[in-house]
Amino acid sequence: MSNLDLKPAPTSCGREAGTGPAKDLLTARQFPLGAGTVVRRLLPNLGRRMVGAWCFVDHYGPDDIADEPGMQVPPHPHMGLQTVSWLHQGEVLHRDSLGSLQTVRPYELGLMTSGRAISHSEESPRPHARYLHGAQLWVALPEAGLHLAPTFEHHPDLPVVTAPGLRATVILGTLDTATSPGTTHTPLVGADLALTGGADLRLPLVPDFEYAVLAMSGRVDVDGVPVEPGSMLYLGCGRPDLPLRADGDAAVLLLGGEPFDEKIVMWWNFIGRTTDDIAQARTDWMAGTRFGEVHGYAGARLPAPELPTVPLKARGRER
């Protein structure tokens, strides 16, 4: 998915010092994603730029798109990151410059690793389901992954962990004893936690990871903090487990990973290490080189915004 902000600010990302257990409730900014659909952006956020290597989190829906075209994201480029498509309702048709053509359905993993360069489009199929509800996430690649050849993975069957009141689908990484088949490049985890009404449990965590919980539907009390759909609670590091309670049926995404130590710059749909990295990527996309071509999308590709006049400075542990 593209960052559709027409005036994207440079985002300096990296690990922040002194991160222990926390309870920071993040609110979203809103952006249009196509007729009938608006996304709620939780990361990057004021004062919180990353959770492990997770660096971009959009939540959308549930939206009634029965009489609307739904998601319409034209061809656009990526570098230096992975995109994770995750649905609770609806379908997304993925096309990319590798020639991939794949419909991603609820609880299936669509994982695109951009490496050095890729382009793709995402759209609601025609015809499509009435409702669209999901999340789009990015994972920053470490320096060793910046020059990888791009890939796309589709995993329709993912491992599940169950406990009284809980059904957890492992999207990426490992939860308990279950490991996703999706490729990762840093230690991280992503899991969809479906809780039934009356659930009251403690979820085991990795103390060295930092975590956040995004509410997808219903209300969940996360370590005593009520988290409503479209909001995200940052939890910090140093937690051996996480108390979760739901009075009614609910679902959240658990995102976590080792704090990301590298200094990076994220601007528009690119992640690099220097201003020159970003500027060259923009030049290459506008010139039609490097990122390949997406075939079959009925529309023009997305032009890159103008670069900001301020330097795109990479930072690390400091805010």
TrEMBL record:
Binds 1 Fe cation per subunit. One of its GO terms (molecular function) is metal ion binding. Fe cation binds at H76, H78, H120, E122. The keyword Electron transport does not apply. Keywords: Iron, Metal-binding. Residues 1-21 are annotated as: Disordered. Its cofactor is Fe cation. Residues 191-289 form the Pirin C-terminal domain. It holds the Pfam family Pirin. Residues 41-139 form the Pirin N-terminal domain. CDD domains: cupin_pirin_C (cd02247). SUPFAM superfamilies: RmlC-like cupins. InterPro entries: Pirin (IPR012093), Pirin_C_dom (IPR008778), Pirin_N_dom (IPR003829), RmlC-like_jellyroll (IPR014710), RmlC_Cupin_sf (IPR011051). Belongs to the pirin family. This is Pirin family protein.
